Each structure stands twice: as C-alpha cells, then as structure tokens.
Amino acid sequence: MKTVMQKQTGPTSRLWSCIGVLLILAGWQIAAMYLGPMLMASPLDTFKNLVPMLTSTHFLDNASVSLWRIGVGVGCGCLIGFILGVLAGHNACLRGLLEPLRWVLMAMPPVVVVMLSMLWFGLGSPMVIFMTVLMMAPGMYVNTVKGMLQVDRNLVEMTHVYRFGRWRKLLHLYLPALTAPLTAALLIAACGGVRMVVMAEVLGAESGVGYALANAQSVFDNTEIFTWIILVLLLVAVIEFVLLQPLQRRMRQWQENDHV
Fold first, then answer.
1. Which residues cross the membrane (predicted)?
2. For the chain, what is the domain count?
3. How far is residue 168 from each of residues 78, 98, 113, 176, 196, measured CA to CA in Å?
4. Residues sharing a CB contact under 8 Å with residue 2, sequence separation 6 or more, in sequence order
5. Does residue 32 register a pLDDT over 80?
6. The domain spanning residue 151 has which CATH number?
7. Closest CA to 206 of 15, 49, 61, 2
8. Are residues 217 and 97 in the same domain?
9. Would you say the pTM of this structure is higher than 0.70?
10. Any long-range contacts for 108-114 (C-beta under 8 Å, 24+ apart)?
11. Can you say whether residue 208 is alpha, beta or left, with left for phi > 0 and alpha for psi between -120 and 50 degrees?
12. d(CA 151, CA 86)
C-alpha cells in the first residue's frame, strides 16, 4: 500500500514542483521588466552569464574558498553540537548548565556574531568559520538532546540488563533513535551554513562568494549579482539532493535493519 501511494503521489508532487519553479521564474521576469535592468537582471541575462561565470577563474577561486569554509564550519558545528547533545542527554546537570548558553546563541542575531567575530579574528577564514560553528552548533545540540530524551526508557533498561558498553549502547540504541532528528538537523545546518558563510563573507572577508557578491554590488553589476545568487542556490540544491537526501535514505535503512 505504501509503495502504491508513493507511485501515485511522486510524479504529481514533482509536477507541482516544476510548476512552482515556473511561477518563480515568471514572477522574476515580471519584476525585472517593472524595475528595469539597473535594479534587477532578467532571468535570460542571468542564465546567459551562468556558463561564462562557471568557467572563469574568478568563480573557481571564490567558490573553492567558500566551499572549504562551509565544510569546516558546518562540520565542526554539527560535531560539537552532537557530542554536547549526547552528553547533555545523559546528564541533567550538564543540560541545565548548557541551557543558558544555548539560549544566548540561538537568540543572538547573526549580524552581532559577525561583528564580534570580525573584532576578535579580523577578516578572513577564521572569522567566517568561527561564526558558522557558533551558529550551527545550537541547532544540532537541541535536536540531539530532544532525540536522546525521547528514547524508550524500557530499551535503556534492557541495555543495562544485557550490560551494553557505552559504545555499543550509542551504536545500537541511541544512534538509530536519533536518525530522524539528526538528518533534519543536518539539512537545516547545511542550508543555514551556506547562508551564514555568504553573509559573513559579504560583511567581512577578502575572498569567497560573499566577497564577490559585495564587489558586484559596489559596481552595480546586477547580472553578476543574480548569477552568483543562482550559483548559491545550485550549491544548496547539490548539498541537499546529492549529499543529504542519499545520506538520509542510508541512515533510514540502517535504522530499519538495526531494529530488525
């Protein structure tokens, strides 16, 4: 029954997604015609500039720097949040101790974090990576703690009865239970990390996609600005559909096999 429903809803969902993309392009074209080329590049001009941009050293240099910052920042932030979340899920005292810091980091506007990072680290990669780690860790921490607290207490007692070690308990009890919240947190962190890195580069970096966007804005090159925006969206699409969604399916299969 589930397979039949997926076959019936899958093509329909993709069709409506395509219609949504066409509506966005139509709205973009109408807005470009209304505002004029000085304020907004048209979709046609943007896509014409896409291939020359992709083959230029200007794109390759800035994109490689941004990808490195995204990978390090998001990876370290998620790892720190996961480790602290697992520990806090086991220890109520540590959870209470970390709660004020979690609240401060999640409530603080990202622009403030960027300003403080620039003050402490100056311009460049250390500032961007520090800010990304600081913004990504709380989300992963919250999802990990929530997943840990929702683990069936009867299963926890069973691991005590069968004398599971810490590593075996983490591998066979907690990680399968954390599959859903962790995959959702990874998706949010990856997409949010791209936005954070680009914003930090716009405000205070000497290289990267955000730096290139700021340069294009300073000379009022709207075609290049919108080309970079499309490239950032393509990057997020690659991260989600090529990396994260296959990872989610593998983790879901692993969870089901582990339960079997």
1. 67-89, 101-121, 127-149, 170-198, 225-244
2. 2
3. 22, 26, 38, 12, 36
4. none
5. yes
6. 1.10.3720.10
7. 61
8. yes
9. yes
10. 110/135, 110/196, 110/199, 111/199, 111/203, 114/199, 114/200, 114/203, 114/204
11. left
12. 12
Quote the Cα angle for 178-180-181, to 5°: 70
One-letter amino acid for residue 91 of the chain: N
Residue count of the chain, please give it: 260
Any domain includes 91: yes
Asked whether residue 120 falls in the same domain as residue 7, the answer is no
Domain that holds residue 22: 1-35
Q: Using N-to-C axis directions, what is the helix angle for 92-107 and 125-149, rounded to 10°?
A: 130
Same domain, 14 and 133: no
Q: Is there a contact between 138 and 106 (Cβ–Cβ < 8 Å)?
A: yes
In a domain, 44, yes or no: no
Q: How far apart are the first and last CA of the chain?
A: 21
Which two structure tokens, joined as six digits, stand for 199? 């914003």
- 119: tokens are 């003050």
Both structure tokens of 112:
């403030």
CA 213 to chain centre: 20
d(CA 197, CA 71): 10
Residue 59 and residue 27 share a domain: no
| 29 and 131 in a common domain | no
DSSP state of 49: T
Query: How far, in Å, CA of 194 to CA of 203, rounded?
Result: 14
User: How do residues 176-213 score in pLDDT, each as one tens digit?
Assistant: 777 777 777 888 888 888 888 888 888 877 888 888 88
Crossing angle for the helix pair 209-218 and 179-204, to the nearest 10 degrees: 40
